[in-house]
Amino acid sequence: MVRAEWVVIGDPGEGRVLDDGAVAVADGRIVQVGPAHEILDVCAGVPTTRLERHVLVPGLINTHAHLAMNMLRGSASDRNLADFLAVVMPLEAVSLTPDRVERATQAAAVELVRSGVTTSIDMYFMVDAGLRGAESVGLRLLTGPTLIDGGPTTSTWDQVLTAAGEWLDERPASGIWRPVLGPHGTYTVGPDQLAELAALINGRDCILQIHLSETEAENDVVLARHGGRPLDVLEDAGLLSQDTLLAHCVHLEASEVDRIARAGAAVAHCPVSNLKLASGVAPVRDLLEAGATVAFGTDGQASSDDLDLLHVMRVAALVHKGTASGAHPPDATALPARQALRMATLGGAEALGIEAHSGSIEAGKVADLTAVDLSSPWIEPVRDPVGSLAYSASRQDVAAVWVAGRPVVTSGKCVNVDERAVVQSLRRLGEEIQ
Ligand SMILES: [Zn+2]
Questions:
Q1: From CA 252, how far away is CA 108, in angstroms rounded?
Q2: pLDDT of residue 308
Q3: What are the beta bridge partners of residue 26?
Q4: Are 115 and 122 in contact (CB under 8 A)?
């Protein structure tokens, strides 16, 4: 059982905060939530973690990342997306091995859980190596084959497609876990190939994630090459649905905002990466107003340059206040703290189609929990724990994390791996890849 000074219960967007609350966990699931004195009456004698001046929130959910790109961190800063990719893609083509991807993903998983993240999606190569790296830390990783025409592989498209089908056959959706199929983008995977992927999915329970309209240049290239904008190409291929997760969506037309919302597709908003690459600011307020699901992503560490989802949450809450969007002028009431927390938790679960299992602290859900210490000089006094979390707390304040009830971070340190050894391995990766 976990007892905390503040517990955010139910839909985090409503921001109901229990003072001195408790969460009882059994077999990896939340069995009871309520005032501590009530839960203690029923759970007398159960081992309890007591967290004073901590807020307990649902585990954060990262909806866009390329985790093993930490091995390329710092290799292509201060460039726009096209110049960034021109550096990064050739490096990947000569550098990737299963061993390196596993070590890099392990370090990324440490970074994520230390930032309060319990579930992350991934879009990268050598999927099984990445899964091993994440599992060693205790992070839940939703992943699957990444497809890119001319990517860092000597395989032909047909070979990549066949391997993707075999991987999906071997790893069907199960409970909270869903496989992911990741065509990189409509400028790197053509319409015929996308149609082949639609045929491959053919009723499978599977997330389709793709980069979409990250820059104006991408829109122009796809329009010139295929006669339609990226969303047109995707929709024509039969790949725009409620299982579609669109990364970025920075440069959308108003009608595209509506089409995404109507299709039930979700958007992974990555403001830190979009700002660093000068891609622009996504029309998040318009997407939310249209009813689209919008969640947060870190993107890869070569462009973001870290996996701090609390930081992403704060940047989003700030940038959308200070930036005009469509018909919306700058507005200090835009993306308030509770909405930002919702996008980092339940919104992320909705984007991944796992909201029945995760994203909020409610009886019956998987016990994915994050405790943040609000007692530091850069946070106190706490008048509203959700506001403190959104506007004052940082990842160094993340004190404890549970994934399906199992502790993966306690007292601010990873439980399952030796962090110093993981960091040394990451440093060696940087030395190996030049
Ligand atoms: Zn990306």
A1: 31
A2: 96
A3: 29
A4: no
Residue 340 structure tokens? 């930002």
Phi-psi region of 155 (alpha: psi -120 to 50; beta: other; left: phi over 0): beta
Question: Domain total for the chain?
Answer: 2
User: Residues with beta carbon < 5 A to ion ligand 1?
Assistant: 299
198 and 124, same domain (yes or no): yes
The reply to whether 136 and 285 lie within a common domain is yes
Same domain, 71 and 173: yes
Q: How many Å lie between the centroid of ligand 1 and the Cα of residue 298?
A: 8
User: 258 CA distance to ligand 1 centroid (A)?
Assistant: 23
Q: Are 112 and 158 in contact (CB under 8 A)?
A: no
Which structural domain range is residue 23 located in?
2-59+364-414
pTM of the entire predicted model: 0.97
pLDDT digits (tens, 9 = 90+) for 225-282: 999 999 999 999 999 999 999 999 999 999 999 999 999 999 999 999 999 999 999 9
Query: Is residue 425 in some structural domain?
Result: no
Q: How far does residue 19's CA lie from ligand 1's centre (Å)?
A: 39
Q: How far is the CA of 2 from the centre of ligand 1 (A)?
A: 35
pLDDT for 194-236, tens place per residue?
A: 999 999 999 899 999 999 999 999 999 999 999 999 999 999 9
Start-end of H helices in 345-418? 346-352, 385-391
Instruction: Report the alpha-carbon distance of residue 293 to residue 346 in Å, rounded.
Output: 10
Residue 219, both tokens: 């829109």
Task: Tell me: do 126 and 216 sit in the same domain.
Answer: yes
Domain of residue 273, CATH code: 3.20.20.140
CA of 104 to the centre of ligand 1 (A): 16
Q: How confident is the model at residue 187 (pLDDT cuts 50, 70, 90)?
A: very high
CA distance 47 to 371: 17
Please tell me the distance between residue 269's alpha carbon and the centre of ligand 1 in angstroms. Answer: 10
